[in-house]
Amino acid sequence: MILITGASSGIGEFLFEKFYNSGEKVLGADLNMPSSKKYKDQFTLVDVSNYESVVNWVSALPKDSEIILINCAGINYNTFAHKAEIDRWKKIIDVNLTGTFNVIRATLPLMRDNNYGRIINLSSVVSQTGVVGTSAYAASKAGLSGLVKAISKENASKGITINNLNLGYFDLGIIREVSTEMRDKLKEKIPNKEFGHPINIYNSILTLIDSPYINGTSIDINGGLY
């Protein structure tokens, strides 16, 4: 069973549809329902930053579920650090880092009981390169690196793997919030001068699902951008 957070838009929506159309049992969670009514029975309204909301979703799953968790839920806030509104800065951490942990925490007992689990978090090249105005987003994604290293060691003996995908710039999701001028500048920094297609993310996830010896690491999918 595949669980995808942030599944009603952007990369999460793309992945949900790919797995759904391939015949997989996939369930989505988000603050909003998907635009297509076709998927409404596979969706639950969940606030990942609220642990109780996450538990209510996970507790309804069959106890024998072999879970593949893909954490796509995330938000952004761009500002210079010295101008940041503290509550908005903290919200990024609450959703992107703590929210990711909340879903992991809620699903791990089920994974451990069934001696199987795959956890894949979407991280970002921003946490590696240093981008002006992204202190909150970069910090939230950088935290995932340490998270997977600790959790992988705690759960490897139970058939559970956890990894990050450090994404570069893809023509989907948060990049749509960036101005055309800035998008053009970003493309110039990428060796092949174009944004990535999300099929690369999907293919990488398939590899992680089928590769139990890849564990506790972060894989860069960025077109050579460093």
Question: What is shown here, in short?
Answer:
With 226 residues, the chain is α/β, with parallel strands linked by helices. It contains seven helices and seven strands.
Write structural notes for this entry.
This protein has one domain: Rossmann fold. The protein has 7 helices and 7 strands; from the N terminus they run E-H-E-E-H-E-H-E-H-H-E-H-H-E. The chain is of the alpha/beta class. Strands 3-2-1-4-5-6-7 form a 7-stranded parallel sheet, with helices on both faces. It has helices at 10-21, 51-58, 86-114, 126-129, 135-155, 180-189, 199-209, and strands at residues 2-5, 26-30, 43-45, 67-71, 117-124, 160-167, 218-221. 39% of the residues are buried. It is 42% helix and 16% strand. The termini are far apart. It is globular, with a radius of gyration of 17 Å. The longest helix is centred in the middle third of the chain and has 29 residues, at 86-114.
List keywords for this structure.
7 helices; Rossmann fold; alpha/beta; 226 residues; seven-stranded parallel β-sheet
Spatial separation of the terminal alpha carbons: 34 Å
Text of the CATH class: Alpha Beta
Which architecture would the CATH scheme give at its second level? 3-Layer(aba) Sandwich
Mean pLDDT: 94
Any low-confidence stretches, pLDDT <50, length ≥5? none
Sheet-strand content, in percent, reads: 15-25%
Helical residues, percent: 40-55%
Structural class: alpha/beta
